[in-house]
C-alpha cells in the first residue's frame, strides 16, 4: 500500500501519494470485523467514486475522522522524533550566517531539505489538531 520506500509523500498543499495514504488510513482505522468484511470483498473492490471525491488536500486532512487524525498525528510525531534536531535548531542554524557558511555546500543543502521537511510536518500537525 505504501510503495517501495514505505513512506508517504506530503507537499505544502496536499498529500502527493493520496491514494496510498487514504487506503492505509482506511484499513488501519477499521475494526477487526470491518477489516475481515473489507478483505472478503472481491479483490478489494475499488471505492473509486468515494475516493475520487476524497482528495487529501490540507483542508481534507483537517476533516479526517478522529481515529485517522490521531494515527496520522502520532506518525508525524514519530517521524519528527527520528530527526537529530528540531525545527528551531534548523531555523537557528539557517539564521546564523557565520555558522551556516562554515558548513560544506552539501551540508547546507541537507539543512535546507531537513528544514523544509520539518516545516511540512509541523504544518500537518497543525491541520490535525
TrEMBL record:
Domain Rubisco LSMT substrate-binding: 4-121
Entries under Pfam families matching the protein: Rubis-subs-bind (PF09273)
Cited SUPFAM superfamilies: RuBisCo LSMT C-terminal, substrate-binding domain (SSF81822)
UniProt keywords, alphabetically: Methyltransferase, Nucleus, S-adenosyl-L-methionine, Transferase
Molecular function GO labels: methyltransferase activity
Region (Disordered): 38-59
Acidic residues: bias regions: 43-53
Subcellular location: Nucleus
Protein's GO biological process: methylation
InterPro entries on file: Rubisco_LSMT_subst-bd, Rubisco_LSMT_subst-bd_sf
Presence of the UniProt keyword Cell inner membrane in the record: no
Name this protein carries in UniProt: N-lysine methyltransferase SETD6
Lineage per the UniProt record: Eukaryota, Metazoa, Chordata, Craniata, Vertebrata
Amino acid at each position: 500500500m505504501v510503495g517501495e520506500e514505505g513512506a508517504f509523500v506530503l507537499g505544502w498543499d496536499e498529500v502527493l501519494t493520496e491514494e496510498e495514504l487514504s487506503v492505509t488510513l482506511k484499513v488501519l482505522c477499521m475494526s477487526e470485523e470491518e477489516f475481515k468484511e473489507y478483505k472478503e470483498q472481491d479483490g478489494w473492490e475499488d471505492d473509486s467514486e468515494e475516493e475520487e471525491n476524497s482528495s487529501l488536500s490540507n483542508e481534507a486532512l483537517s476533516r479526517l475522522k478522529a481515529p485517522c487524525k490521531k494515527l496520522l498525528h502520532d506518525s508525524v510525531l514519530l517521524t519528527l522524533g527520528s530527526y537529530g534536531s528540531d525545527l528551531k535548531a534548523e531555523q537557528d542554524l539557517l539564521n546564523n550566517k557565520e555558522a551556516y557558511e562554515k558548513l560544506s555546500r552539501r551540508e547546507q543543502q541537507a539543512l535546507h531539505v531537513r528544514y523544509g521537511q520539518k516545516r511540512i510536518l509541523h504544518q500537518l500537525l497543525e491541520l490535525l489538531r
